[in-house]
């Protein structure tokens, strides 16, 4: 990778970090843009000469390698943003993303998930992910951010925007017991260095083990629990704007994906409608 572009890439990623982009986003963008810079070098291109057709060919290469539409959308956003950082306003059109309903767990699956937790640590991870926080927000929670009496946590989200989320009352005794043993400023400190918080990948691995123990045969990530919180809280009567606030969405349109209909609830409501009409005698 050309040294000048390597320096530019580090500067760009530094600007994203300064704006509060998550560690995961930085890792994803680094991987994408390293590929893009290598593509430019192989084809004798420089950022000031790259065209929309060049980006098309780069996207096509990734598509042939099996990258899906959601991933290609992220690629287009990253490339366009990086070129803009370099002073090139290439108005590359973003590819369409398939509209997919958010994956979430049912109440029965949640019960199994919590039942499969082996200690307070695992229960806290599940319980706090069910407040709707992102995994990057979870690992960055400090003990000082928690107000046990109000059952609230101050969370710092994207763009360093602060918000408050609320946790379930059954977490209070677990949290008190856990905090008596925790000597770190972080709620979930790293085992290697307690002065740092645990890595989000560690949380993902822990969740994966709990899911396996619970016998849940579907892919469950921390974001699945965020989707679960939003979907079930909406079904329970929370207003869409209240959910927007709890999730930390800057735009209501981001929250509206959760207004999809729960198939089980739809069947229940349909059955109630049919019974309200008449009950046949046969």
UniProtKB/TrEMBL annotation:
GO biological process: DNA integration; DNA recombination
Ranges for domain Core-binding (CB): 3-87
Coiled-coil ranges (or none): none
UniProt-listed Gene3D superfamilies: 1.10.150.130, Intergrase catalytic core (1.10.443.10)
Keyword terms, alphabetized: DNA integration, DNA recombination, DNA-binding, Plasmid
GO molecular function: DNA binding
Stored PROSITE patterns: CB, TYR_RECOMBINASE
Alphabetical list of SUPFAM superfamilies matching this protein: DNA breaking-rejoining enzymes
Tyr recombinase domain segment(s): 100-271
InterPro entries: CB, DNA_brk_join_enz, Integrase-like_cat_sf, Integrase_catalytic, Integrase_recombinase_N, Integrase_SAM-like_N, Tyrosine_recombinase_XerCD
Name recorded for this polypeptide: Integrase
């Amino acid at each position: 990778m050309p040294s000048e572009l390597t320096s530019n890439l580090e500067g760009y990623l530094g600007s994203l970090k300064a704006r509060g982009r998550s560690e995961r986003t930085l890792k994803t963008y680094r991987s994408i843009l390293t590929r893009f810079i290598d593509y430019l070098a192989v084809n004798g291109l420089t950022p000031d000469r790259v065209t929309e057709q060049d980006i098309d060919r780069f996207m096509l290469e990734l598509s042939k390698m099996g990258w899906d539409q959601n991933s290609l959308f992220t690629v287009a956003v990253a490339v366009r943003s990086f070129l803009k950082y370099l002073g090139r306003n290439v108005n590359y059109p973003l590819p369409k993303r398939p509209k997919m309903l958010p994956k979430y767990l049912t109440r029965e699956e949640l019960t199994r998930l919590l039942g499969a937790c082996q200690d307070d640590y695992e229960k806290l991870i599940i319980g706090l992910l069910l407040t709707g926080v992102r995994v990057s927000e979870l690992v960055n929670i400090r003990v000082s951010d928690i107000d046990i009496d109000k059952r609230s946590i101050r969370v710092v989200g994207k763009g360093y925007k602060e918000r408050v989320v609320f946790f379930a009352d059954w977490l209070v005794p677990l949290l008190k017991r856990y905090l008596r043993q925790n000597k770190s400023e972080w709620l979930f400190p790293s085992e290697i260095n307690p002065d740092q918080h645990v890595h989000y990948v560690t949380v993902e691995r822990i969740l994966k083990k709990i899911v396996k123990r619970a016998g849940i045969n579907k892919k469950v990530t921390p974001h699945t629990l965020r989707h679960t919180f939003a979907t079930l809280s909406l079904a329970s009567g929370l207003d869409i704007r209240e959910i927007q606030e709890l999730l930390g969405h800057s735009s209501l349109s981001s929250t509206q994906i959760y207004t999809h209909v729960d198939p089980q609830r739809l069947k229940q409501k349909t059955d109630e409608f049919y019974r309200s009409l008449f009950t046949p005698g046969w």
